Amino acid sequence: MFKDKKPVPIAFVILSGLYFIYVIASGSSRMIGDEVGGDPGGMVLPLVFSVFMFVASVYLLITDKRTEKDREAMSKPEKRLFVLTLAFSIAYILCIRRAGFIPCTVLLLFCLCFANQQGNIDKKDWKFLISGCAASLVNVLLLYTIGRLITRNLLSAGRKGIVPLWIGSPAFTASCTLIITVLWIIAAVKLCGKKWPSNGDKSAHNAWISVVIATASTEIIYLVFKQLFLVELVKGLIFW
């Protein structure tokens, strides 16, 4: 039945199903009230992700079939990449409640981007993997902190009448943070592109590309769900 199916979609159907059960069992996806009047709860976003993962995995399972070439045994690097992808995903599921949405998401995205760009993680790549994780974490926390300061100050000033209400609105503060994020992306691409060009060290180039993708994606997801739709994302280790 599954001879013509690729192993990755099968694995992710199982993984997303288990993730969905875990989120439901946690009991944190129910609506809870807050001062705004409708905080969807800290696990609503993971619940949406789990459903999306399951639907996407089932679609790929049905449509993405093996070719004759694909039916040959996976090479050692492919097996290693497959195991790493599963390991990163499972670690994300297990750690997000304690570590928080932002740290876990940025680390997961970096690891997946870097591993898939490399195609194979050798011993020499671990230094790029570790340094890239650290760089992603530092940069996303920097953007998050700047965004929090802007949001708190402008919202407070808007409530006190110091600035016009539209300046103290969530949409405006989110726009300010988005502009800062875009400027950071431009600066990172220019600086890193000069230092680690595509025709240079492949691992270094893939590492900084993955850092930019992971950092920007995490910050934008946070902006959309937290600041615009007021979804209570799990803070975890981030106490500010």
From TrEMBL:
Annotated ranges, domain DUF1468: 9-141
Domain of life where this protein originates: Bacteria
A Pfam short name: TctB
Record field: transmembrane: 7-24, 44-62, 82-108, 128-150, 162-187, 207-225
Keyword terms: Membrane, Transmembrane, Transmembrane helix
Name by which UniProt lists this protein: Tripartite tricarboxylate transporter TctB family protein
